[in-house]
Specification:
Length: 751
């Protein structure tokens, strides 16, 4: 292999040598890692303790020691066959075989010369082993000082065996312990004692300090991309700035350039990223394809905050076609938001600019330019009750809608009265919801009004009991709680057909949603309410106060027919089916330290119709064993039924081999949605991953993704020499997160 090629791959070795090999894992239990060196107890500073079977004085300042010689100072220990010491000059000559140890290295050597006054040591014919991290090798000469180790005609590896899987050989290696950097000259990487790469010069970190260089490349092949090679290059620009440049070559599409810049100052923390593909060979009708992402959080003193989160793409199919770390492939819209907040002692004020980039053939969303929200930070107490106020002014714009722009002013004063005790609580709230709209557009033949106001009172009464008792049911010395609750909610009927819908969507009707004050987010539509909500939660806690079981059930009971969701034509404006007798339940079971169960249902008690359900069983065993079964059902998503079952599993075969797999199937369409499998081999000094994935391609330009599915199959390969690559590059636990349906702990499911 030519030297020019070696220069091109130089950063591959320069990035993580030694830095990530600072611990001894279970895989390396046969690696005889030496204990950290400690100086002799009771040894005074700037003194030398010498023990030997025989000593011969040579004048008043020199002496020769022989037979089991042991030399101890505050910085090192040497055991040798013989030693000659010049006390006046502080020089030491020792002949071997000898053993040298300090707080960084342990060296077997044939001879040593040392300047003890300067703490400088030179050893010949050295076989060394690092004591602060994995690493060993040989050197014709090793020179050590208090801040630096120099190796000449040397080798290095993290493999414990006498015939290492890999090692590097160099004419010289320098390890600077203060700066945390090393450098080598004329280096050859050998795998199975075969030279693979020649590198004239490179530097590398020897601790956790960052260093510019090429991160571990990845290689994969798929139907969509063809041969794919990703080579990220890290740039350590300063302590508070860095960047990542990533060329991504796809034989079916072309060369995509990705860049990421991170920054951190006293006031700002953020990231700016861009992705660019000048010419997509598989999409000749498209021009340049790109993604731009900017996220920043700013802090201006104790009272002011600012947030920016913007993602923009060149075309609707960018995410589903090319993927990105800055948005999900399943996203159908991208949020773009800028917010300035004032956190005063009495008032909270938010100024926000917010819009969405809608992906696919969907109606465009309204942009809020601007939206100002004001509310008091703490309630004011008058006449024994709490007074609160929330106000909001918003201006919406959408050139593609019937109402092209609108200004909304919403005022919401409220008064609350609460009582709390150990065993019970009572909350009451009376709100006045006043909203005024100024609407403009081409809607002369519609029922929308140019100027309209709406005022509604709202009453919420909520009470809860907190009961508990000792129990031995399924537990020893356990506690069972019972938490029944009841809520009454009243909002009068109001004709709202002349008001447009700008930022209002229907919220999910799970157990916790049953006790919300409103069924819709935003204030454009406030549904009529005259209803009781009954619910209860019971829990089992063990003697250590760990929750082992919980069950929550609840149902809404409507007191008037007009308040039922199916009776309101406006409820159907938001495209979801409505239910009158909604029953919801949630449960979590943690009956064993390794077993978890999570489940929930929403059910229409009138129509005897299952609305949605979810279930997850999770087993987490020793040694990275993991199995998860899950099922999700929704009876109506844009007119389609979703009934999907999935499994995740991660099973170690032995200390070296591990298998990871996931499978998801749509029971309605009777087809697989995603299949993922991976196998990893990891030894003490190298690791290899091979993964395969088969998923349905999504085209947001089509009216629906439920017809004529097209599958994309891919194979990925990742090979890492441990000590020359980051741990995150071969962590098998990360494999479960690579698919569209990434593994999630059951207690953190977001259904």
């Amino acid at each position: 292999m030519s030297k020019n090629w070696g220069i091109l791959v130089l950063p591959l070795i320069s990035t993580q040598v030694i830095a990530n090999s600072n611990t001894v894992s279970g895989l390396c239990k046969d690696y005889l890692q030496p204990k950290d060196w400690q100086p002799m107890q009771g040894l005074l500073p700037e003194t030398i303790d010498i023990q030997a079977n025989k000593v011969e004085l040579q004048g008043t300042d020199s002496a020769e020691f022989s037979g089991d010689v042991a030399v101890n100072t505050q910085t090192m220990t040497v055991t040798a066959k013989s030693a000659l010491i010049d006390k006046r000059k502080g020089l030491l000559n020792a002949s071997g075989p000898l053993l040298f140890q300090d707080n960084y290295t342990m060296v077997n050597s044939s001879g040593m010369y040392a300047d003890l006054s300067q703490s400088e040591f030179s050893l010949l014919g050295a076989q060394y082993q690092l004591t602060q991290q994995l690493g060993k090798g040989k050197a014709e000469k090793l020179r050590a000082t208090s801040t630096q180790v120099d190796l000449f005609n040397s080798s290095f590896t993290t493999c414990p065996s006498n015939t290492p899987f890999w090692e590097i050989e160099a004419s010289s290696i320098t390890l600077d312990k203060e700066k945390g950097w090393g450098e080598t000259y004329n280096t050859v990487l050998k795998i199975l004692d075969t030279p693979v790469i020649y590198v004239p010069y490179f530097t590398f970190p020897i601790d956790d300090k960052r260093k510019s260089g090429l991160l571990t490349p990845t290689l994969s092949s798929s139907n969509r991309y063809g041969l794919e090679i990703v080579t990220p290059y890290y740039l350590n620009l300063a302590e508070n700035y860095d960047a990542l440049l990533t060329p991504r070559y796809m034989s079916n599409k072309g060369l995509q350039l990705q860049g990421e810049f991170r920054y951190l100052t006293e006031q700002h923390a953020g990231i700016f990223a861009t992705e660019f593909l000048s010419d997509d060979k598989s999409e000749p009708d498209l021009e340049e394809r790109y993604l731009v992402h900017w996220q920043q959080k700013s802090y201006f003193g104790d009272n002011w905050r600012a947030n920016i989160d913007v993602t923009n793409v060149s075309d609707d199919n960018y995410l589903t076609d090319l993927g990105s770390n800055y948005a999900n492939q399943t996203d159908t819209q991208l949020s773009r938001k800028a917010q300035l907040s004032y956190l005063g002692e009495d008032w909270l004020i938010d100024l926000q600019l917010h819009n969405f980039e809608v992906l696919g053939n969907h109606a465009e969303s309204y942009a809020a330019f601007p939206e100002i929200t004001v509310k008091n930070r703490t309630a004011e107490k008058y006449f024994g009750v709490d007074w609160q106020f929330t106000g909001q002014m918003s201006h919406f714009k959408n050139d593609d809608a019937e109402i092209t722009d609108a200004t909304r002013i919403h005022l919401e004063p409220s008064v609350t009265y609460n009582l709390n005790d150990y065993a019970w609580s009572f909350d009451s709230k009376l709100s006045l919801l006043h909203t005024h709209y100024e609407q403009n557009g081409s809607f002369n033949k519609t029922e929308y009004a140019e100027s309209i106001s709406r005022t509604l009172p709202q009453v919420r009464l909520h009470g809860q009991l907190n009961l508990e008792r000792s129990t031995n049911l399924l537990l020893s010395d356990g506690i069972q709680t019972l938490e029944p609750q009841i809520q009454y909610l009243y909002t009068p009927e109001k004709d709202q057909s002349r008001i447009g819908s700008y930022d209002t969507v229907k919220m999910q009707d799970d157990f916790f949603g049953l006790f919300r004050e409103r069924r819709f987010s935003g204030v454009d539509y406030i549904s009529e309410a005259n209803q009781f909500t009954l619910g209860a939660t019971t829990r089992l806690l063990d003697s250590k106060n760990t929750e082992r079981f919980s069950l929550s059930v609840g149902q809404i009971i409507y007191l008037s027919n007009s308040a039922k969701p199916t009776e309101s034509a406006l409820d159907n404006r938001f495209g979801e089916k409505n239910y009158n007798a909604l029953f919801a339940a949630e449960t979590k079971i943690h009956w064993h330290p390794r077993w978890y169960f999570s489940g929930g249902i929403q059910y229409d008690a009138d129509e005897k119709d299952l609305i949605r359900s979810h279930m997850t069983i999770d087993y987490r065993g020793n040694n990275k064993k993991l199995v998860q079964l899950n099922h999700h059902y929704v009876n109506d998503v844009s007119g389609n039924e979703i009934d999907q079952v999935g499994i995740f599993t991660s099973l170690p075969i032995d200390d070296n081999w591990q298998v990871v797999a996931s499978y998801h199937r749509d029971l309605t369409s009777k087809r697989s949605i995603e299949v993922f499998a991976g196998v990893q081999y990891e030894s003490c000094c190298w690791a290899v991953q091979i993964t395969g994935n088969r998923t349905i391609e999504t085209d947001l330009n089509q009216s629906t993704s439920f017809q004529d599915p097209v599958f994309d199959s891919s194979i990925n390969f990742n090979f890492v020499l441990k000590g020359l690559g980051s741990k995150s590059r071969y962590d098998a636990s990360q494999l479960l997160k690579q698919g569209i349906f990434g593994y999630r702990r059951p207690y953190f499911l977001n259904n």
